[in-house]
Amino acid sequence: MLENLKNHIFWVVILGQVVDVYFLTLERRILTHNNKNMERVEKLLAYLNVSPNDSFLQHALALEYIKEGKDGKARFLFEEILKREPSYVGSYYHLAKLLERNGETQAALVWYRKGMDAAKAVNNRKAYHELEAAWEDLSYE
């Protein structure tokens, strides 16, 4: 009986150590991921200081903001890009998806439609069809 109790305690201690190591590893991964994301944001902000109207950099920063849950900042950047450069087709999709996620269905439909018009104007069939599919999916929900 005493031997079984010792064996049981041994395995409880070992299992506890394994669980501790697992959670420490998981915490490290989360912190590393957050740090990498922050590093990307800091780099993009530094590049934007040099070239403040670069749509590619603003678009990339908006996507990083979405990863961080900062939808307001991302929305602002997408809208700024599209005001300045309406032919920057990729931003329409991401802006509309952001609005869709936040329950702004009508606004998302408007941006999908604007994106379809912009894609058609620059003869970007692939983008047009992706925007059209997203518009249709949302329209018929």
Furnish the topology, listing elements before pairings:
Elements: H1 2-50, H2 55-67, H3 71-84, H4 90-101, H5 105-121, H6 125-139
Helix pairs in contact: 1-2, 2-3, 3-4, 4-5, 4-6, 5-6
Short note summarizing the structure:
The chain is mainly alpha-helical. It has 2 domains: 50 residues; 71 residues, Serine Threonine Protein Phosphatase 5, Tetratricopeptide repeat (Alpha Horseshoe), CATH 1.25.40.10.
What does this molecule look like?
- The protein contains 6 helices and no strands.
- The protein is an all-alpha fold.
- It has 2 domains: 50 residues; 71 residues, Serine Threonine Protein Phosphatase 5, Tetratricopeptide repeat.
- Helix 2 runs antiparallel to helix 3 and helix 5 packs antiparallel against helix 6.
- It is globular and about 50 Å long.
